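Subject: Interface between my chains keeps coming out wrong

I've been trying for a while to get a sensible model of this assembly. When I model each chain on its own everything looks fine, but I need the whole thing in one frame so I can look at the contacts. Pasting all components below, labels as-is. Any help appreciated, I'm running out of ideas.
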Amino acid sequence: AQSVTQLDSHVSVSEGTPVLLRCNYSSSYSPSLFWYVQHPNKGLQLLLKYTSAATLVKGINGFEAEFKKSETSFHLTKPSAHMSDAAEYFCVVSEGDSWGKLQFGAGTQVVVTP
Amino acid sequence: DTEVTQTPKHLVMGMTNKKSLKCEQHMGHRAMYWYKQKAKKPPELMFVYSYEKLSINESVPSRFSPECPNSSLLNLHLHALQPEDSALYLCASSQVDEKLFFGSGTQLSVL
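Reply #2:
Try treating it as a single job with all components included. I did that and got this:
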């Protein structure tokens, strides 16, 4: 069975400072891992995807995530937050034997202050 | 075209109404999905169509009826809904076993 835990429900950062969103997963197989972002009243947009090609994954808008198998983690980072980064972020896991069934984390609300 | 288009954006309906949500994509994706999202919660999978056949039904009540007329279109027919069905309904598409592209959703209110 697969599961995903986002360790922070709410993160507040100042504009221009680093952002760290933490995600731990549990999976019986080699998982695919994703980060999605959702701005208010919008659908979800894919930030990045890990599928075992490289442990450090670069995504859109300056985000990147590092896959650490030993820690079962897939944390999302950005060196310098922008006001437009204020949104809800979801860590998502998918296992190869359960295609179509993504397991979403509970989400992390990011607030960016000037 | 990398968009998933959902209509309408907003819908208000009574418990005795029949309405339909529509979703369209022109990316050649062969899998399409319906998700339900309540406020401040992650999306919950409702249905998955793969190659125009229903492949996953997450035990959704029969008052929700999906339809996939062709590989580009996905509908969700609504009948006799309850107020607790009020939510954001998201459509998504993907190539099989690939990343999902989401539409902006239909905000549904059931009175």
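Reply #3:
Confirming on my end. The radius of gyration of chain A is 14 Å.
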